[in-house]
Amino acid sequence: MPRRASVVAIAAGVLIMGSSVPALAGEPGADPAIVDPPIAIDGAGVERGSVTDTPVAGADTESGAESTEALEEDLPLPGEVDGPDLGDGGVQPKGQPGCTPGGVVRVTRNLKNTMSVKYATFIQNKKSYKIDFKFTSKKSGTTTIGSSVTVSSEFKMLWLGKIKVDVNASAQKSWTSELGVETGGKVKAHSTVYGDYGIKKENIYGYTGTRYSNCEIGGKRYMKAWAPYREGWVIR
Could you tell me if 64 and 236 are in contact, meaning their C-beta atoms sit under 8 angstroms apart? Predict the structure, then answer.
């Protein structure tokens, strides 16, 4: 999804362990699973505007063959860029009594979203004219919230709550991709088109730490964290 202008608002955010967080996956009020419309990247060998989630069905429509290449864990999504560096300071009052001690997490940068590919396919058009094609997701997989540094499940839930509140309300603890999701379009003459189906991940950079009773934060551990939020096709 495109970078949101609101990411700058994250600069004011520190989440404290024990504070309220939004409903998580599997809890009442959690967002339902959503499949995004297919995305065709610039330069893909498809006729412009032909990619759709309701492909043409018929004897002349050719289906993709499964790729044997390793599946990418962080496939770049078209249009995604890293957000600005939000800095570390200015969010915790120094030397002020009355803070409740506990663990905290803070986003210092909103990174570009990526996709964990669960199924890859392709089609090669050797003809001198365009043809209709159809891709169908035939393998499933699961992506869960995680981080580049080992943290406890409690800190993972803090990260998830932080991402849901400040970055992406659709983020979930765990996401399993759907089978049978179709896309299609028209392949240009003498072109090969690749399709990747998977789970999109919201990626952030920040730190975990401990807030003391004097409101200072210590023991910071910097890391990348991510949470799944959608699934869909990327056509390239």
Answer: no
- Cα 11–13–18 angle (5° rounding)? 165
DSSP 34-47: -BPPPEE-TT-SB-
Q: What is the pLDDT of residues 12-28, one digit of tens each?
A: 345 544 443 333 444 43
Given a contact cutoff of 8 angstroms between Cβ atoms, the answer to whether 162 and 155 are in contact is no
227 closest CA partner among 177, 168, 151, 139: 168
DSSP for 155-218, written as a single string = HHHHHHHHHHHHT-TT--SEEEPPSS-EEEEEEPTTEEEEEEEEEEEEEEEEEEEEE-TTS-EE
Of 209, 218, 212, 13, the closest CA to residue 95 belongs to 212
Beta bridge partners of 102: 211
Q: Kindly state the greatest CA–CA separation across the chain.
A: 75
The structure's pTM equals: 0.83
The 10 Å Cβ neighbour count of residue 147 is 19
* Averaged pLDDT, 106-121: 97
Distance, in Å, from the CA atom of 46 to the CA atom of 184, rounded to the nearest integer, reads: 10
Q: Using CA of residue 61, residue 66, residue 67, residue 70, what is the dihedral sign?
A: positive
For residue 45, what are the contacts with CB-CB under 8 A and spacing of at least 6? Answer: 125, 187, 188, 191, 192, 193
